[in-house]
């Protein structure tokens, strides 16, 4: 079993690691330096300002048996707040995990995984869960058992900063086969907002009508009679599928299932739920390739591609 020593920050790596960034941003200032040591690699991690604090140089130097092995360097707009090592996917090798804060908005935090592959240090960044409805930062991250759980308070549009009334959102990601995948569905904030809005206002809103799902050469297109401005995207495994929830929408498609047989998707299933319409794209491959969903005029275009490492 690997032994882990961490310097600069007093961090204990447990089977379940919890991080909360409350109050840390102001304490860490404009730079960060630490060292993370495992039985296999030593990591020297730093972020230093290039031009004031808003532009930083992130450096990670990797050593093996006290000899330089590889390194990672990039210009970023974030300052590292915490670094630790953890065997996140239980493959017997430790990954390097970083939590960073935005200098322009310290409440907003990001999560990255670094791992050595060959003689290269590669990294993955936690994907964003769709439109992040109600998000104003305040992220907490819990890791363990091949999962990263991101939680943050949710704000209604009229909430004052520091006084969220939308509850807490938790989003679960899976780390498997060196990919970070969104694994659970964020609860649409529109449900919570609808419970406090006057009924008359809710009835006056015009429902978006989903009219067609068709296959194009480079994407799957979901067409409507108006712009689809609000939607949620969720990736689910066992079996792999992509879920698109559209609050307040209705379907004009007579079938409950539309054959796709392209782009690694067998079919699109349409389900009507209270307050939202759900479209499920069933994958024919495992894992489901990383998607990009683009809102263009009165449609959503779904394209799939492999997650790229840097």
Overview of the structural elements:
The protein is 5% helix and 52% strand. It has 310 residues and is mainly beta. The chain has 2 domains: 5-182, no CATH class; 189-305, Sandwich (Immunoglobulin-like). The protein is globular, with a radius of gyration of 22 Å. It starts with a strand and ends in a 5-residue tail after the last strand. Mean pLDDT is 80; it is low at 1-28 and 190-204.
Number of helices: 3
Mean pLDDT: 80
Shape: globular
Main beta sheet strand tally, sense and closure:
5 strands, antiparallel
Tell me the layout of helices and strands.
Blueprint: E1 5-6, E2 17-20, H1 24-28, E3 32-37, E4 42-51, E5 55-64, E6 67-76, E7 78-86, E8 95-102, E9 109-117, E10 120-125, E11 140-144, E12 147-153, E13 168-176, E14 179-182, H2 189-194, H3 199-204, E15 209-215, E16 220-224, E17 232-236, E18 241-247, E19 250-251, E20 257-262, E21 265-273, E22 276-283, E23 290-296, E24 299-305
Parallel strand pairs: 15-19
Antiparallel strand pairs: 1-3, 2-11, 3-4, 4-5, 5-6, 7-8, 8-9, 9-10, 11-12, 12-13, 13-14, 15-16, 16-24, 17-18, 18-22, 20-21, 21-22, 23-24
């Amino acid at each position: 079993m690997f032994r882990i020593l961490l310097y600069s920050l007093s961090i204990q790596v447990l089977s379940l690691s919890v991080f909360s960034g409350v109050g840390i941003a102001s304490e860490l200032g404009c730079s960060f330096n630490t060292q993370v040591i495992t039985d296999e690699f030593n990591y020297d991690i730093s972020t230093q300002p290039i031009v004031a604090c808003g532009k930083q140089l992130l450096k990670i130097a990797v050593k093996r048996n006290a000899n330089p092995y590889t390194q990672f360097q990039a210009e970023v707009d974030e300052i590292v707040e915490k670094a630790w090592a953890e065997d996140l996917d239980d493959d017997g090798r430790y990954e390097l995990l970083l939590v960073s804060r935005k200098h322009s908005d310290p409440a907003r935090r990001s999560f990255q995984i670094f791992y050595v592959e060959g003689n290269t240090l590669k990294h993955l960044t936690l994907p964003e869960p769709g439109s992040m409805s109600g998000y104003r930062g305040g992220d907490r991250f819990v890791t363990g058992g091949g999962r990263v759980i991101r939680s943050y308070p949710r704000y209604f549009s009229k909430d004052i900063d520091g006084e969220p009334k939308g509850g807490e959102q938790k989003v679960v990601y899976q780390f498997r086969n060196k990919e970070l995948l969104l694994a659970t569905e964020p609860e649409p904030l529109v449900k919570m907002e609808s419970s406090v809005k006057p009924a008359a206002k809710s009835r006056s809103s015009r429902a978006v009508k989903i009219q067609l799902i068709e296959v194009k050469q480079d994407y799957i297109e979901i067409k409507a009679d108006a712009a689809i401005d609000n939607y949620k995207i969720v990736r689910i495994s066992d079996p792999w599928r992509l879920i698109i929830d559209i609050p307040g929408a209705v379907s004009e498609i007579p079938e409950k299932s539309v054959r796709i047989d392209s782009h690694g998707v067998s079919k699109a299933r349409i389900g009507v739920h209270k307050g939202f319409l759900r479209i499920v794209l069933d994958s024919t491959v495992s894992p489901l390739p990383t998607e990009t969903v683009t809102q263009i005029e009165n449609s959503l275009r779904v394209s799939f591609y492999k997650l790229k490492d840097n």
